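#structure-requests
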Amino acid sequence: MNIRPTNWQPWPIKMPTVADWLRQASQLLPDSDSARLDVEILLAHALGRQRVWLYTWPEYQLTPAEQQALTELLAARAGGEPVAYLIGRQEFWSLPLEVSPATLIPRPETELLVEQVLALPVSAEQVRVLDLGTGTGAIALALASERPSWQVTAVDRELAAVALASANASALGLSVEVKQSHWFSALKGQRFDVIVGNPPYIAADDGHLQRGDLRFEPRSALVAEEAGLADLRHIVQAAPDYLTPAGHLLLEHGWQQASAVTGLLQQAGFAAVRKVLDLAGHPRISAGEWRP
């Protein structure tokens, strides 16, 4: 009869290495278009390392605690939760931004809006810029990082977004004034040389709201009435009261809304109205100059 010694322990299960986990985890995200990138970001986050470290130390063996944390992260990602929300940050314009489910996740295509503002023919050194519906502060902070002499104001109606944008500005050491305001409501009497925004522009019945990351992002930052045009219309009609002569208004919108938005700009009296194409060749931004 075999009797186990009192100090007997089961043979330890070998924990996976970095290389093992990356290979196995990638196969568990069949619905993701960026499965490999997703698992690399999650693994680097769980280990407190940069992604390049994963390839420098592929033989590193995960601890049970790390494996448990990764199992939970992977399950959440498999359920569709955005990677940015899982790790609490997203890079925009090479700036590391804190994100939360209270705001939209900054997207690379919005960097086109930043590029267009930076390319404007503004001559004054201290240009006054307003970022409407700032969310994480992405647009405002990107502009402040490139033009330290500009006076950048960022507004959002949600207190959680105001707090988040303020925290990001502080963490990055960038000078941006962040205020709570429903569009222009808290800005009476102020004038700006540039007004920029990425307002809600998705129709309430749009099927994309039930897919991908949009399922987890705040509907208040996504959806607008009038087939997605209500907030765009409001901004265009109100902006002249807050623009300096020859001031510029630039708005991001859905690519199928370009004709409607440029029409709104022309009806409101804007000059030099134009559309800006994204990398896919779709009109993603509409802009105009206010010449009273």
